[in-house]
């Protein structure tokens, strides 16, 4: 049997997908299908959507997308996405659920504060202030908070308390994973890097082989990065960027507070 090679573009969808001709466009299910195709002996690779769009010459549909993917996969300038393992995707799922609950938590706090202000009940900014004062307001029978509004806000407060506990519990997952992962412990040796940030880095970039230079990783964390007069083509990764920036800001605040001239004052 003679050796041969071929290209195949796949446009993934929820219940079916179109084939042309194996390049895969980065979208839901891409990692699973790429791993599955590789197990069958193919050399499937994932590419970002922005590399596919220039090769779509007709209207957007499944078949035309598959043709464009096939064309893009053959171009030497196309960058391919490292294939994540199921374990990497599992940790990223934990990060995404935490992000979802934090957003819901913040939105609920703002909603409760706004509703209470409609009845002249003002709560200072901050979660701790709200958690302390809302029970007092609900128990105060002399304020102008109607029974119906009191009931709704009480339900929202209980839901907020549940979200607080969920966020605490899910952060313990990062701590537990850090204890058994040598790679996470290695990343945590960098000053200011904690389990949440370390797991986000490792599950997002893997071993970093997709970066030609270390500054390309920096560009991934930046919303706009220009090096040596050239703008990088990497798209910012908020999943990794957010915890790193949070920890960096926290570390700088600690340094500022520990400066000798501040202590002397």
From TrEMBL:
GO biological process: DNA transposition
Residue intervals of the Transposase IS110-like N-terminal domain: 54-118
InterPro entries from the UniProt entry: Transp_IS110-like_N (IPR002525), Transpos_IS110 (IPR047650)
UniProt name for this protein: Transposase
Top-level taxon: Bacteria
Higher taxonomy: Bacteria, Pseudomonadati, Pseudomonadota, Gammaproteobacteria, Vibrionales
MF GO annotations: DNA binding; transposase activity
A Pfam family assignment: DEDD_Tnp_IS110
């Amino acid at each position: 049997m003679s050796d041969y090679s071929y290209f195949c573009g796949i446009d993934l969808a929820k219940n079916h997908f179109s084939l042309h001709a194996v390049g895969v466009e980065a979208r839901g299910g891409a990692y699973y299908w790429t791993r599955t195709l590789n197990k069958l002996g193919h050399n499937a690779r994932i590419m970002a959507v922005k590399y596919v769009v220039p090769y779509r010459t007709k209207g957007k549909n499944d078949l035309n997308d598959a043709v464009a993917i096939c064309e893009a996969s053959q171009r030497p300038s196309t960058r391919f996405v490292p294939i994540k393992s199921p374990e990497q995707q599992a940790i990223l799922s934990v990060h995404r659920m935490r992000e979802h609950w934090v957003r819901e938590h913040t939105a609920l706090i703002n909603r409760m504060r706004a509703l209470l202000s409609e009845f002249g009940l003002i709560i200072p900014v901050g979660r701790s202030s709200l958690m302390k004062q809302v029970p007092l307001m609900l128990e105060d029978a002399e304020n102008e908070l109607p029974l119906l509004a009191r009931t709704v806000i009480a339900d929202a407060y209980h839901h907020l308390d549940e979200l607080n506990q969920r966020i605490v519990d899910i952060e313990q997952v990062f701590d537990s994973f850090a204890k058994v992962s040598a790679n996470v412990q290695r990343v945590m040796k960098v000053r200011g890097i904690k389990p949440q940030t370390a797991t986000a880095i490792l599950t997002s970039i893997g071993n970093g082989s997709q970066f030609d230079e270390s500054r390309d990783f920096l560009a991934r964390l930046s919303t706009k990065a220009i090096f040596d007069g050239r703008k990088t083509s990497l798209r910012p990764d908020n999943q990794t960027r957010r915890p790193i920036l949070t920890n960096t800001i926290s570390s700088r605040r600690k340094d500022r507070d520990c400066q000798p001239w501040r202590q002397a004052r």
